[in-house]
Design brief:
This protein is mainly alpha-helical. It is built from 63 helices and five strands. A three-stranded mixed β-sheet has the order 4-3-5. A hairpin with a 7-residue loop joins strand 1 and strand 2. Helix 2 packs across helix 6 and helix 15 runs antiparallel to helix 16. The termini are far apart.
Length: about 1450
């Protein structure tokens, strides 16, 4: 029986041998020359070596479709045959029988293993080319699969099958053969056949020299090859076969000694994660059947699992390689072996691979906790360190960090949180920005609590450790130490993002997170010891958290913050008014979040700040403010303060210049007011939305009456949209009898004139109730009268006559308020209006004439009667004057000269001639110069208004009283009278523009009135006249507006700025540049120039508007900066040239005397030219304006938007270059000769202005410091002087930067070695293991560029809220550094290292003092450190050693003298 089995085994072996030899026939190994094989092996499989003679003679046949299919079948047959032998080997118990049979079969058949490998390589290498056809790629994949399968059969190394280069080439073939652009759309040449391309991809053989010369051209001119779906399917099958072969290889073949191959396999599997979508969820199990893995990403993850096996090397190193590659999958980046990683386009496939990679990392951590947890910590650090600034990538990255931290234990998690707190103070903006994103993700997770297993040591140590651990694990630490710590960030993006996230914290389900925010704004807290350690940079020492193979990112902290609630709230309110759009938007969101959740009180001040942002210059901020007000009203609908703020913010926005803002405001009003007007019944309760509607309308009738005009415009828009239907009117009328009838009548008064049908009976009943004396408030009465007037067209004649009679009798009682008198007269006019103009005029003359006559009779009884003013009723007198003025506008024919004189007599006491004589008073005599009468200021103020209304109808009265009004503005002492005179003159300017134009200087003089209310009112009215072009910018009007910019009341100055920028500049863009040069002379009261400052002014006006003198210099330059900031670059260029021609040239030619006044003008001119606002801003101003208008929209832009932005930047850069070249040419040809001439003149006259001239040259020549001799070639001495001051200024700047980095303020206490390391690594510090040999994949801590400036700037920014350095804290023997100069080379890098128990008071009251100079680190090392010994050490010394410590800031006089000698 045994003999039979042996015979059967031999028979099977013979059959297998025949199958194997038959499968190898298609390779024709017997026809391959040994020389060619040796040459291939000598080349180490690095170059393609074409098969000669036999192998290539049928090349054309293999490209035909039947031949290609036959080759595929031949490769598959060979693969299956070898696969059977490999399976037999795994099933064999002996282990040597099957393997020996494979290699013995090949040997017995005289098949050279070396030739087989060489032939397989000849198929593999062509598949790497991008121009390879589909058949070449498929054959290469099959050949590579066979080679990898051969390696898995035991004995492959002994038979010299293994070659590291060929294995790596085969492994990389899976990514090379798959077309990278297979998913992209083709253009014109997208329909080429793959077969034709494959033929064209094999050109005729060239000579070696020709191939070398054409190699680069072939790479540049690679043809794009189109692959059909069938071709792609064939290539995919080949990739699957190769990946399966690699998996089988990893199961049996150890790569412990082949780490480069293991690294290549890791790279391949990481690339395969994007190959195709995965259907269903992935399961990561230790043992899987390769044949059951459906997708290539599944195989890739399984391959990564196999690589962690100990037989492939150290698990830590293997895991490190895998984490390094998965890092870029999680970051959604493409990382090759060399070069910087590039961002991948975010699509479904990339996101799916990222999610699967995160789950895979979590699986590995759960399986290999002790090994994987330290590496997970580093992986998280690298995710944070290599994050990009784009919003979408940051969001996905933060989510990944949140998922991965969930796998960490409490201690590891706390360590990462500490590192994250330091990262939030990194010099890189993206680090600080991403730390905020991570905090928001971590806050969404349940808050951790210390566990018993987390604590070690004794009881006291455990208590301290538990307290510290509980602090770091709490959500409060994340909010207060990380998130809120970025409120003062130097980057507006980070600062705004932190503020926006602060508001989102209140929406989190975590109660502790909400309490942490409450703690910041509602109570004063004391930071814990750990918080102080992480926030106070002056007492922070560097700590390294070690991990196994690679290092952590170490960051120094210099930030601190206080938790005082008032300071935090004040800071937030300042951020709402920040100059940067992004910060204002985010601060608004944070402020509303605090108000919504009751963290800060809902006060009028806080809400006023919010409503004011609805008129922000930036459109995005306005929209954000409107949205915030809506959210706040939805949360607190019953709060009257919120309701008022909502009205003050939303309603004025209906007149915004931006259409989108108008639409948003109208939409809000429609939702809150219009849509909630429903049919009312007494037994039906109003819901919350309806109650809110009527509360808002009630506020419009009382506290917000000034918004009535804006609300009328909104109603007009609704009417055009047909929103005011008859059903709406009926619903609105039903509310006129309710408790909230005031709001109903208000809304009805707005819509009545726009409605075709009105229920007159209801309206008349309400009118009768008002006339009959029912208790109705004034606002409701006025609205009812307005509705009656609007419904006049729907009334019959009898009803109208009755209403007119009742109105007249009501008005003649003179018991109505002033508001009701005006409303009643307007209603009377509406009732009398008709299509016949004469009939209307007759009606008004009759009825309004009666009112004029009644008021005239009353005034005559008071004024013309002896002792008529005794027991005068002031209120009644005011009502008569008001009625007279309002009625006279409708019946000018009924106004007699006697009426005018009576009104005038209210302002004077000249009433002697009024009874019998009609002699006119002298017009030149101002009202204030008459004898004082017994009328009160209120009566006189209303008299001015009435007299102005009389003047509106008669031009001769305007001629008579305009000089009187002008003199009253100048000499009047009563504020109310002056204010009303200004109002009257502005109204007269509209109707009698030419007459009033002469008195505009008198009117504009009110901009410097002693009373703020007069100045503000005049500013508003003049702005309106300028907008409508009733007056022009003539004379000194513009400069008086400029003086209002520096008004002592900040609100008036801000109002003036708003009027100039947003109302007046648009109509006249050249306004600022046209008046700029003349302003220099005007503000300094200099009138010796032949062209400027020649308009006439009275001495009183000159004194009032003068800003001359050193005491007003700050105000003048505030005006100059305001104008220059709003110049365009063209205007800056033109004004600069014009200053040279009209100012500097006049002094250079001695047309203007260089006396004291002239020297002041010239000095100020140079100071203006030295301002940074005078420099051209081409390229930056446009970008800043776009950022202000659009906020932070650039973060979310797509690829097209980024391309457009890049194009814009390129165009701006080109424009800037052209403008700078023109400016440089003009400066050389025109400005330089003037400067040289002026310098010579100033030197002759020994003028102190020479210093200002040199300062100007220093500022201007900063951009041309290398061309000084070219610019001033005609004056070598001046060129030398300019070079000297430029070098001096550069040294001074270096000194200032060095002083910022000094430790005088106690910001750091580090050793000299640490300082040197900080100079090289300001953000990320390396571990002491730096000198250890790194792995080839270079997965180490990323190193920043060697620059100190970002950290210095960040430290300066973060320390703005800290108290300034207290000079008083210095020791008595110390000296301050102010005003000192450090010559170059006089100081060295020094540091004082003080041992313990040293009783020495150091110079700067600090443990460590380091003073840096411009020489850089010294090489000496020990010579740069001065060791201070303790008292015990001094006693043990042989003798006292004399110290020669020289101050680095003061040069040694002796050495200086020696050098001079």
């Amino acid at each position: 029986m045994l003999k039979g089995n042996a015979v059967l085994g031999a028979l099977v072996q013979s059959v297998n041998k025949m199958d194997l030899i038959s499968a190898l026939k298609f390779l024709k190994l017997e026809d391959i020359s040994q020389a060619w094989v040796d040459e291939v092996w000598d080349l180490e499989f690095t170059e393609k070596k074409a098969l000669e003679d036999v192998a290539m003679e049928e090349e054309g046949e293999w490209e035909e479709q039947p031949a290609a299919a036959a080759r595929d079948e031949a490769f598959k047959a060979l693969y299956q045959c070898l696969l059977v032998h490999a399976a037999d080997q795994r099933q064999s118990t002996g282990g040597d029988r099957a393997s020996a049979s494979v290699w013995s079969m090949l040997g017995e058949s005289r098949v050279s293993i070396k030739s087989l490998v060489a032939v397989l390589s000849s198929f593999v290498l062509p598949g790497k080319d991008k121009a390879a056809g589909v058949q070449q790629r498929v054959s290469a994949l099959h050949a590579a699969s066979i080679y990898v399968l051969l390696l898995g059969i035991p004995g492959s190394i002994a038979n010299k099958v293994f070659h590291e280069v060929l294995l790596d080439t085969c492994a990389n073939l899976a990514s090379h053969c798959w077309p990278q652009d297979s998913g992209r759309k083709r253009k014109k040449d997208g329909l080429k056949s793959s077969q034709a391309d494959s033929k064209r991809a094999k050109p005729k053989r060239k000579e070696a020299a020709q191939m070398d010369t054409d190699e680069d051209e072939e790479e540049e001119e690679e043809e794009e090859i189109h692959f059909s779906n069938q071709d792609l399917l064939r290539i995919r099958d080949g990739v699957v076969l190769l990946v399966q072969s690699l998996l089988r290889l990893l199961q049996t073949f150890p790569l412990k000694d082949q780490q480069q191959s293991a690294s290549n396999c890791t790279l391949l599997f990481s690339k395969m994660l994007y190959f195709e979508p995965v259907v269903g969820e992935l399961t990561f199990t230790a043992e899987q059947d390769i044949t059951k893995l459906r997708s290539i990403p599944e195989m890739a993850f399984y391959g990564l699992q196999l690589l962690i096996s100990p037989k492939h090397g150290d698990q830590k190193e293997s895991l490190q390689r895998i984490f390094y590659r998965l890092l870029f999958v999680i970051l959604m980046k493409n990382k090759a072996n060399r070069g910087e990683p590039s961002l991948l386009a975010v699509n479904q496939n990339v996101l799916a691979a990222r999610q699967q990679a995160i789950h895979f990392v979590c699986h590995l951590v759960s399986e290999l906790k002790e090994v994987a947890l330290p590496l997970l910590h580093i992986l998280l650090q690298h995710i944070c360190s290599q994050m990009v600034e784009r919003n979408e990538y940051r969001n996905h990255g933060a989510q990944a960090v949140g998922m991965l931290t969930a796998q960490m234990e409490n201690k590891d998690y706390a360590s990462f949180i500490k590192w994250l707190a330091k990262l939030s103070r990194s010099a890189k903006v993206v680090h600080r920005l991403f730390s905020v994103d991570v905090v928001m993700v971590l806050l969404e997770q349940p808050e951790r609590q210390p566990q018993e297993g987390d604590l070690q040591g004794g009881e006291e140590e455990q208590e301290e450790e538990e307290e510290e651990l509980a602090t770091v694990l709490s959500h409060k630490f994340l909010i207060q130490s990380v998130l809120f710590g970025r409120r003062m960030d130097s980057s507006p993006t980070v600062q705004g993002h932190a503020l926006a996230c602060l508001a989102q914290c209140l929406e989190l389900p975590s109660l502790n997170a909400t309490q942490a925010v409450h703690h910041l704004f509602s109570a004063t807290g004391t930071p814990s010891v750990l918080e102080v350690e992480l926030t106070e940079g002056g007492h922070q020492t560097q700590k390294t958290y070690r991990t196994l193979p690679f290092r952590t990112v170490e960051l120094c902290t210099t930030d601190s913050f206080g938790s005082d609630a008032k300071e935090n709230l004040a800071l937030l309110l300042r951020r709402v008014e920040d100059s940067r759009t992004t910060i204002r938007k985010s601060a608004l969101q944070a402020l509303v979040g605090l108000l919504k959740h009751g963290v800060i009180p809902v006060t009028s001040d806080n809400l006023t700040t919010l409503s004011h942002r609805c008129r922000d210059p930036a459109i995005s901020v306005k929209k954000k403010a409107l949205q915030c007000l809506g959210e706040l009203l939805a949360v607190r609908p019953e709060c009257p303060v919120v309701q008022k703020a909502w009205l003050q913010g939303i309603i004025p926005a209906v007149l915004d210049m931006e259409t989108t803002v108008q639409d948003k405001a109208l939409e809000s009003l429609d939702q809150v007011l219009l849509s909630q007007v429903k049919l009312y019944s007494a037994g039906r309760h109003l819901d919350a939305a309806q109650r809110l509607t009527w509360s808002l309308l009630g506020l419009l009738c009382s506290e917000c009456q000034d918004l009535s005009g804006y609300f009328s415009r909104a109603v007009g828009v609704w009417s055009k949209k047909n929103s005011l239907t008859s059903r709406f009117i009926a619903n609105l009328i039903s509310h006129t009898d309710a408790e909230h009838a005031t709001g109903a009548w208000l809304l009805l008064s707005k819509v009545a004139s726009l409605s075709a049908e009105l229920p007159c009976s209801k309206i008349l009943d309400a009118f009768d109730g008002v006339i009959s004396g029912q208790e109705v408030n004034v606002a409701t009465c006025c609205h009812i009268l307005s509705v009656v007037g609007d419904s006049a067209a729907h009334l019959n004649e009898d009803t109208r006559t009755r209403i007119v009679a009742e109105l007249l009798s009501w008005l003649k009682t003179f018991s109505l308020s002033l508001t009701m008198i005006s409303a009643a007269i307007d209603t009377l006019c509406q009732l009398g209006s008709s299509d016949d103009i004469k009939q209307t005029q007759a009606f008004l003359s009759e009825h309004c004439g009666e009112l004029v006559a009644a008021s005239e009779a009353y005034l005559a009884g008071i004024i013309l009667t002896v002792n008529g003013t005794d027991g005068l009723n002031e209120e009644l007198m005011v009502r008569h004057l008001h009625t007279l003025g309002a009625a006279s506008l409708h019946c000018p024919a009924k106004v007699s000269k006697r009426t005018v004189l009576l009104v005038e007599s209210v302002l004077t006491t000249h009433s002697d001639g009024l009874a019998g004589s009609e002699e006119e008073l002298p017009a030149s005599l101002p009202l204030s110069q008459f004898r004082t009468n017994s009328f009160t200021t209120r009566i006189r103020a209303h008299g001015v208004i009435s007299l102005g209304k009389l003047c509106l109808q008669r031009e001769e009265l305007v001629h008579k009283y305009l000089p009187v009004f002008a003199r009253e503005l100048e000499l009047g002492t009563e504020v109310a009278v002056r204010s009303n005179v200004a109002v009257v003159m502005c109204d007269l300017c509209v109707r009698y523009t030419n007459l009033v134009d002469h008195y505009i200087p008198n009117l504009s003089a009110c901009l410097r009135d002693d009373e703020a209310v007069v100045r503000e009112q005049t500013l508003i009215m003049l702005t309106g006249l300028l907008q409508e072009e009733y007056i022009k910018w003539k004379g000194s009007l513009f400069f008086r507006f400029m003086v209002a910019l520096v008004d002592p009341v900040p609100a008036i100055a801000s109002l003036c700025e708003y009027c100039l920028l947003h109302l007046l500049l648009k109509n006249n863009p050249e306004m600022f540049s046209q008046h700029f040069i003349e302003g220099i002379f005007h503000f300094n009261s200099y009138s010796k120039h032949k062209s400027y400052n020649k308009f006439s002014q009275s001495d009183r006006e000159k004194v009032r508007f003068s800003l001359k003198g050193a005491q007003h210099r700050e105000k003048r330059f505030r005006i100059y900066r305001f104008l220059l900031e709003n110049f365009t670059d063209v205007q800056r260029f033109n004004v600069s040239n014009k200053i040279n021609q009209t100012v500097l040239a006049c002094f250079a030619d001695e047309e203007l005397p260089l006396d004291q006044e002239g020297a002041e003008i010239l000095s100020e001119t140079f100071s203006i030219l030295s301002l940074k606002e005078m420099k051209l801003h081409t390229g930056s101003s446009a970008a800043a304006a776009a950022a202000a208008a659009g906020g932070a929209a650039g973060e979310d832009g797509d690829e097209e938007g980024s391309i457009a932005t890049m194009t814009k930047k390129v165009l701006q850069a080109a424009q800037k270059k052209v403008v700078q070249q023109v400016h440089k040419k003009v400066f050389i040809e025109h400005t330089v000769p003037l400067i040289i001439s002026l310098k010579n003149l100033l030197e002759r006259k020994r003028s102190p202005v020479l210093g200002e001239l040199m300062t100007y040259l220093q500022v201007v020549m900063q951009d041309y410091r290398n061309e000084v001799k070219v610019f001033f070639s005609s004056d070598e001495q001046l060129a030398a002087e300019v070079e000297f001051i430029l070098k001096s200024a550069e040294k001074q700047r270096e000194l200032e930067e060095q002083m910022v980095n000094c430790s005088l303020a106690g910001q750091s206490k580090t050793t000299p070695a640490a300082k040197q390391q900080q100079q090289q690594q300001p953000e990320v510090q390396g571990s002491p293991l730096r000198s250890k040999t790194r792995l080839s994949l270079n997965f180490t801590t990323p190193q920043p560029p060697p620059s100190r400036r970002p950290l210095a700037r960040l430290a300066h920014t973060d320390s703005r809220v800290l108290r300034p350095m207290q000079v008083g804290n210095l020791q008595p023997g110390s000296s301050t550094l102010e005003g000192t100069v450090m010559p170059k080379g006089q100081a060295f890098n020094r540091a004082i290292s003080t041992p313990k128990s040293v009783n020495i008071s150091l110079t700067f009251n600090e443990g460590v003092s380091a003073i840096f100079c411009d020489r850089g680190p010294s090489v000496g090392g020990e010579g740069d450190v001065l060791h201070i010994r303790s008292n015990e050490q001094l006693q043990q010394a042989a003798g006292p050693k004399q110290w020669n410590v020289q101050s680095p800031l003061r040069p040694n006089r002796r050495s200086a003298a020696a050098k001079s000698t």
